[in-house]
């Protein structure tokens, strides 16, 4: 049998396939055996390993179960999410894997409308800007938009999470994509105020040094009531689970909510901006 030589450096998809083959061969398994464990055919496993077909999220999760890698740093689900999101900061894919199952999501954002609130056009304008600067490819830009829409879709479920958002006032003034894109984005923000599981507040410029954070922050309360924090700097994203680190962040978030405008005042500010947007 001719075994195709793999080049994991060719693409992220090729690296995924090469690692799958290596993990399988280390266990002495045939492609047919692995296929029987995850519910597909040996030919499909071959196509994934050689990069002819991309793995799906469901297949990646089943591969993790078969290889006993679920929830580990080496999980194929984690690698799939990293590919799906394009070039993103370390830790973000891990964060997203928890976000879709969280009971409560708390967000603080500076400068840009938070991703969970973005319209597709706003998100696309941001991603295309990244592509134009050469940070990602055009294909990865489109993947980012698709991945963001999947994150938003994951919030629509029988028991939706509580989503608490504090946006710095600067988020409302950063012109992204032109007047039409911004008009639609502001309308989207106004519509979210009517949803019972969303609490949106604007942190006005006037609070000055009383603003608790100087970088974006995400705080999750998971179904078992454990806490998880994700924070980003310019070059790194970090997931934290240690309660001694996360609880002070949660307390600071509550203090920020107290300094921010009420929901009614926040909506009034957004509607005032809408009146001045063509």
Question: Secondary-structure map with pairings?
Answer:
Layout: H1 12-26, H2 31-38, H3 42-49, H4 57-67, H5 76-84, H6 92-99, E1 104-109, H7 120-132, H8 138-153, E2 162-168, H9 170-173, H10 179-192, E3 198-203, E4 217-221, E5 227-232, E6 237-240, H11 243-259, H12 263-275
Parallel strand pairs: 1-2, 2-3
Antiparallel strand pairs: 1-4, 4-5, 5-6
Helix pairs in contact: 1-5, 2-3, 4-5, 5-6, 7-8, 10-12
Class based on secondary structure composition and strand pairing: alpha/beta
Number of helices: 12
User: What does the average pLDDT come to?
Assistant: 89
Global Rg: 21 Å
Low-confidence stretches: none
The CATH architecture classification of the largest domain is 2-Layer Sandwich
Global shape = elongated
Task: Report helical residue fraction.
Answer: 40-55%
End-to-end CA span: 65 Å
**Largest sheet features:** 6 strands, mixed
Provide the number of structural domains.
2
**Which CATH class of the largest domain?**
Alpha Beta
Q: How much of the residues is beta strand, in percent?
A: 5-15%
Task: Write a structural description.
With 278 residues, this protein is of the alpha/beta class. The protein folds into two domains: 73 residues, lambda repressor-like DNA-binding domains (434 Repressor (Amino-terminal Domain)), CATH 1.10.260.40; 184 residues, Endonuclease, Chain A, CATH 3.30.870. It contains twelve helices and six strands. A six-stranded mixed beta sheet has the order 3-2-1-4-5-6, sandwiched between helices. Helix 5 crosses helix 6, helix 7 packs antiparallel against helix 8 and helix 10 runs antiparallel to helix 12. It is elongated. It starts with 11 loop residues before the first helix and ends with a helix.
